[in-house]
Structure to design on (361 residues):
């Protein structure tokens, strides 16, 4: 049976005998640690995972060992720096070449590894990313649950909208709804914007108050057993003008065109173009100012597929991507609609299922 470990080593094809994932402090932990241990919670600061084709061994502290209980990994719990270095040395000394994940390894982490291991070190990041890009059944199950949770929270937004509320208030209500629906927390700080600020794709919510005639954009996601969802819905507070409705329906048609284009073997740039051509065929030409989507998994931007005009790669069955066309008119407003899909044998299956019609509240 293929496991994550055996899959990685068939991609490595002899390039390394083991892969060592080294975590430093909280902001420099490598999500591959969670991937190869299958941990459902934990931060794993200052921990190391030694990954081989047959299994995973971990060196960690007493603080994190509890999160690894019951998992199919060998755990060595250490206290001092010397014990840590000795444990890593004894796990790695028999290997001639070890692979590292260079983009996530700090200089401090590299030096610590070098104190324990004197053999050859190679960068295995490309093979690790390839391995992560295609999700296994367990991962799809977790992402799907994360998406269901976020969709239920999204469907509660219309009833949350009250004249005079601030963007920050809506962001905080949305975060509470995520917890209430079964998430272990937001997958990123929610983007919530009203009226003119909906034209800024990566806006942070502030003190702006909701008034009649505003578009309302909410881009957020939750986590379930560490796996992320990422969804965007845009609503109308009050009655929409013809132009606001046209803006919404244009973006929705662009998303439909993208769904139809997503299938194994499709060029990622062609999928982006399918959506972009719809928007560029209207008065909103040139207003779709970002890529169509990105891979989703343990991270919100999970690497792997990138749906953009610059992509050169093709989609594969088992990949999970966001599909998030948008059109933004400066000082007026913007619309983005984002759903998450998994690639099936012949197309894609939507994992988010929140209402997608233009809703006037
Ligand atoms: N959800 C924000 C983004 O994908 O950029
Ligand atoms: Mn996204």
């Amino acid at each position: 049976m293929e496991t994550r470990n055996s899959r990685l080593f068939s991609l490595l094809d002899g390039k390394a005998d083991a892969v060592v994932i080294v975590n430093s402090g909280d902001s420099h932990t490598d999500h591959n640690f969670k991937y190869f241990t299958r941990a459902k919670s934990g931060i794993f600061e200052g921990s190391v995972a030694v990954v081989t084709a047959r299994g995973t061994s971990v060196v960690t502290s007493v603080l994190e060992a509890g999160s690894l209980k019951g998992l199919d990994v060998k755990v060595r719990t250490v206290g001092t720096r010397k014990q840590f270095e000795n444990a890593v040395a004894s796990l790695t000394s028999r290997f001639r070449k070890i692979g590292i994940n260079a983009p996530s390894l700090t200089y401090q982490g590299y030096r610590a590894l070098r104190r324990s291991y004197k053999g050859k070190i190679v960068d295995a990041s490309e093979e690790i990313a390839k391995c992560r890009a295609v999700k296994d059944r367990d991962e799809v199950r977790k992402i799907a649950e994360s998406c269901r949770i976020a969709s239920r929270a999204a469907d509660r937004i219309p009833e949350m909208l009250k004249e005079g509320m601030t963007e920050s208030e809506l962001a905080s209500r949305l975060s509470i709804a995520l917890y209430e629906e079964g998430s272990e927390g937001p997958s990123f700080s929610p983007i919530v914007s009203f009226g003119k600020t909906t034209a800024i794709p990566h806006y942070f919510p502030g003190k702006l108050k909701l008034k009649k005639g505003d578009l309302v954009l909410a881009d957020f996601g939750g986590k379930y057993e560490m796996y992320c969802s990422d969804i965007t819905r845009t609503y109308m507070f009050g009655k929409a003008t013809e132009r606001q409705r046209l803006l919404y329906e244009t973006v929705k048609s662009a998303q439909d065109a993208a769904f139809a284009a997503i299938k194994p073997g499709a060029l990622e740039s062609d999928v982006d173009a399918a959506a972009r051509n719809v928007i560029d065929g209207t008065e909103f030409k040139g207003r779709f100012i970002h890529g169509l989507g990105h891979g989703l998994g343990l991270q919100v931007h999970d690497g792997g597929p990138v749906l953009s005009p610059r992509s050169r790669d093709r989609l594969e069955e088992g990949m999970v991507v966001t599909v998030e066309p948008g059109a933004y008119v400066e000082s007026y407003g913007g619309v983005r609609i984002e759903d998450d899909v998994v690639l099936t044998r012949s197309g894609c299956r939507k994992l988010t299922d929140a209402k997608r019609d233009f809703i006037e509240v």
Residues 219, 230 surround glycine (ligand 1) (CB under 6 Å).
